[in-house]
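FAQ

Q: What does a record look like?
A: Structure on top, sequence underneath. For example:
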């Protein structure tokens, strides 16, 4: 069986290992944070991602992947000539820069928001003239869960918005008046085999994903095929191997691409219990060149993130077909410390269980 090296040892790395250990695989993680979530299920080397000793260890693995897209590109580029590394560094390079990402969408005829590059207050003024209000200013690099971005509705918002992005190189996007937020998980193997999970509906609060409904309610064949077409264009362009998550807006019966993540994704956590094969197992199958598992839904499911506080474990587990996942992280405000997936055969039954679970989580906040 394989030794799998992973850049990053957060909860996504933890869930990759939980999917891979039953298949006989061994995991080695590199992460600068001591005692990261994945350390409980594999060997963690606590060092910088670019540390020579850590990279040497990873280079001895059978294959290397990463669990989030903010790992230094130079670490991936240093490993790529020495060991099988998936997804390819090109995917990491584009995903790390919103301007490159949006430009890639445009080149592939993937519908996205209008955008302009901004590197000064003067350029911001000119970009606003081009795009108009409302619009969204985002840092080109870093930023997640709503960080590093600001909505502009009037000219009076420009100064605060520029300060919010810390006057760093940014991108100004037109505001998309979407009807709902969706996402699709795509997976491609080293052999070229591809598979797609059903499109899901996502709900955010304060920039953080709170709920994923799988499959998305009222999902049409046109929406599913449109999402798969966008994802296929990206995978073709990037020479992609592994799981790719594409975040989308539904607008007027069509799809607008927001961003992509070259990795397993929070909106795919439902797949552990809700799909024939989880996104984590399929990512491992893909990077090892193994046949992909079926991606269809076992039953309708809803995933709720646990953010900030730990709920009553007893109350969660008392809900029929509720599946609790804790990441071994210390609770703190706005931090994802786990998730719960609830399943049911009928939509009414699922809605009742979700309402009950939301009540448990709300009680935690009091």
């Amino acid at each position: 069986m394989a030794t799998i090296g992973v850049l990053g040892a957060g909860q996504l790395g933890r869930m990759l290992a939980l999917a891979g250990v039953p298949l006989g695989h061994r995991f080695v993680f590199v992460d600068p944070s001591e005692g990261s979530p994945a350390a409980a299920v594999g060997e963690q080397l606590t060092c910088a991602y670019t540390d020579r000793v850590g990279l040497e260890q990873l280079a001895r693995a059978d294959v290397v992947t990463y669990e989030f897209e903010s790992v230094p590109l130079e670490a991936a580029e240093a490993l790529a000539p020495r060991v099988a590394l998936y997804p390819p560094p090109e995917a990491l390079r584009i995903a790390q820069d919103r301007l490159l990402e949006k430009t890639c969408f445009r080149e592939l005829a993937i519908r996205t928001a209008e955008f302009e590059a901004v590197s000064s207050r003067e350029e911001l003024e000119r970009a606003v003239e081009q795009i108009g209000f409302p619009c969204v200013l985002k840092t080109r690099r870093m930023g997640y869960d709503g960080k590093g971005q600001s909505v502009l509705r009037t000219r009076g918002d420009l100064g605060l918005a520029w300060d919010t992005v810390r006057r760093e190189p940014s991108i100004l996007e037109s505001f998309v008046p979407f009807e709902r937020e969706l996402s699709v998980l795509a997976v491609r193997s080293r052999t070229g085999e591809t598979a797609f999970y059903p499109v899901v509906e996502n709900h955010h609060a304060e920039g953080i994903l709170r709920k994923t409904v799988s499959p998305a309610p009222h999902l049409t064949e046109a929406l599913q095929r449109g999402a798969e077409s966008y994802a296929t264009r990206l995978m073709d362009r990037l020479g992609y191997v592994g799981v790719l998550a594409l975040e989308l807006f539904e607008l007027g019966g069509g799809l607008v691409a927001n961003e992509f993540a070259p990795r397993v994704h929070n909106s795919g956590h439902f797949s552990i219990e809700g799909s024939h094969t989880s996104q984590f197992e399929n990512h491992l199958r893909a990077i090892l060149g193994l046949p992909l598992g079926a991606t269809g839904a076992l039953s309708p499911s809803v995933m709720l993130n646990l953010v900030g506080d730990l709920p009553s474990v007893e109350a969660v587990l008392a809900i029929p077909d509720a599946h609790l996942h804790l990441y071994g992280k210390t609770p703190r405000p706005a931090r994802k410390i786990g998730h719960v997936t609830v399943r049911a055969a009928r939509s009414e039954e699922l809605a009742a269980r979700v309402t009950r679970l939301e009540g448990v989580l709300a009680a935690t906040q009091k």
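Q: Is there anything notable about this one?
A: The radius of gyration is 20 Å.
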